[in-house]
Amino acid sequence: MVAPYTRLVRRRLLILAPLAIAAITAAVVVALGVGGGGDSGPELNAGPVSPPVPAPRTAGTGADGAPVDLPAEDRPMLVTFLFANCPTVCPLIAQQLAAALDEVGPDADRIDVVAVSVDPEGDTPQAVRRYLRGHGLDGRMRYIVGSEAELAPLWEDWQISRQPPEQAALSLHSARIVLVDADGEQVGRYSGGLPIPPRDIAEDIQTLIEA
Asked: Which of 3, 36, 74, 178 pairs with 205 at a CA distance of 20 to 30 A?
């Protein structure tokens, strides 16, 4: 004969077991991002932007005189912030991006690379074109130039600080590389002030264009 206490324990187990299974299932669903669209972006070497956030419209005039309006539909992009007379950080960013695009090869045409000037006075079209040629980025990076009034809304939208006009010998602006997926979402960021292995950037480019 089963003792009353044993029967009570069994009844409680029968009641609790389905609840425990449901709780475990819910936890697995949340962990995998199933059913809710997920809040995480692709697996990248860059620091994640989690949850991803929309990239602001990045429009203006390139150093070649052609209009720029990004992100483009169904195309990922890399965005960075430079000035042509920068003595340290900007040349490093440019070299890293050029090396990464070299490593990606022909597929690099499937991602847009754009720089936004943080020095409206010094970044003349001539200076920027010379800068792009010198770093192997001519025809591979679009570089938005303009007056302070034209560029300031982009700085505000991207939440970056411009280069102080009186400090041309130092790099004091916000330096970063932002990765944007084909849906126009910011999904990753690199600090431009640190050396970044070009292979890491190349792998991230490949991830974005294959997503």
From this structure: 36
Say yes or no: 51 and 77 in one domain: yes
Please state, in angstroms and rounded to a whole number, the distance separating the CA atoms of residues 156 and 165: 17
pTM value? Answer: 0.79
* Residue at token pair 């974005």: 208
Say yes or no: 158 and 191 in one domain.
yes
Total domain count for the chain? 2
Contact 196, 94 (CB under 8 A): no
Query: Tokens representing 18?
Result: 């389905």
Q: Which domain holds residue 21?
A: 1-38
Q: Check residue 93 and give its pLDDT.
A: 95
- The answer to whether residues 201 and 160 belong to one domain is yes
**Residues in the chain, pLDDT under 50:** 1-38
Query: Over 145-168, what HEC string results?
Result: ECCHHHHHHHHHHHCCCCCCCCCC
18 and 110 together in one domain? no
